[in-house]
Write a structure and sequence with these properties.
This protein is an all-alpha fold and about 80 residues long. It has helices at about 5-35, 40-75. The chain has one domain (about 10-75).
Length: about 80
């Protein structure tokens, strides 16, 4: 089995970006849901929804970045 270095680099970058985004987003969501006095199950649903949306947007931009970078590298 060979390792696709470009795909591995993209995966590591995506996870690293997500890792550093997770804590501030969690604090924001938990602070907001606590201020609104929402229950734990509702907080879990809100947090899951927010992380899913942020993850989709993040993955889109990471993929677009690496796709453009790969196309430039192929032209050289």
């Amino acid at each position: 089995m060979t390792i696709d270095r470009s795909a591995a680099r993209e995966a590591v970058s995506d996870v690293a970006i997500g890792f550093f985004m997770a804590f501030p987003i969690a604090i924001l969501v938990l602070s907001t849901t606590t201020w609104m006095e929402l229950s734990v199950p509702v907080t879990a649903v809100v947090q899951t929804f927010v992380f899913t949306l942020v993850g989709l947007v993040r993955k889109y931009f990471v993929r677009v970045h690496f796709k453009g970078r790969d196309e430039v590298c192929e032209d050289v």
